[in-house]
């Protein structure tokens, strides 16, 4: 199955849109079949044949019954579509917020996502972790969508429809997947050169796994004596202007928080796997992976680069 298929909904929000889309497809499909069927019939039935006389055929002007039919039927179709659209929008926008709901602030940035869990004190990037929502005891996740620069759009097709992230405005959406798993998404609004590599991963955990993830994210950053020289590189180069590592002097805000960098599967907003080799390439020359990226190349001497990456890999 395609991991981003809108036809495999796994959350109420996505399921409501899916149900609505089936109705729209059925109605528009029926219109298509009737119109193209009549067209094909007319082409075949009334094509020019040998021996046709070339005189003008009889001209028919107006038919009350036909005109009433082709006015009333489309009006009924439009009313049905308007009412079902309004109902679906109401069901999605006015969803109740149960007491167990999790709040997350998602901030769109060129070209990555920042996720903040205000009630948990967690900040992470690009990979959103949420708990499953048991329909008998729902724990949906409500997202507050903000933008730090231009318009982006948050879209995880199997979990919810698209919602824009717009500067100076807070939008909202929610998801309540009943199945654990990994759901893939993508920024769905052109936001600049690397819009296509502004990928999005949502990890849906069982409650126990989510609690474990939360505990791991709340733990302070690892400080290892063996990685001290790499930490020194991190704290004496430009890294700390943009990146934060909780509990150290690094508290930059332009780039992703790196406190638990190694708990993420990917780098560069999902562009590549988070491996030692990719980290080194990313730090030395991020343009090689994401042309136009706002992170500058570091061009460190080999020893400093090795030390720096040895430090980063301790940030579990
Ligand atoms: Cu962010 Cu497209």
What would you say this structure looks like, in words?
The chain is built from seven helices and twelve strands. The chain is of the alpha+beta class. The strands form three sheets. It has a five-stranded mixed beta sheet with strand order 3-2-1-5-8. The protein has a five-stranded mixed beta sheet with strand order 4-10-9-6-7. A hairpin with a 4-residue loop joins strand 11 (266-267) and strand 12 (272-273). Helix 1 (12-45) runs antiparallel to helix 2 and helix 4 packs across helix 7. It is elongated. The model has no long low-confidence stretch (mean pLDDT 91). The structure holds dinuclear copper ion. Residues 108, 111, 152, 187, 189-191, 195, 198 line the site of dinuclear copper ion.
Brief characterization of the structure:
By secondary structure, the protein is an alpha+beta fold. The protein is built from seven helices and twelve strands.
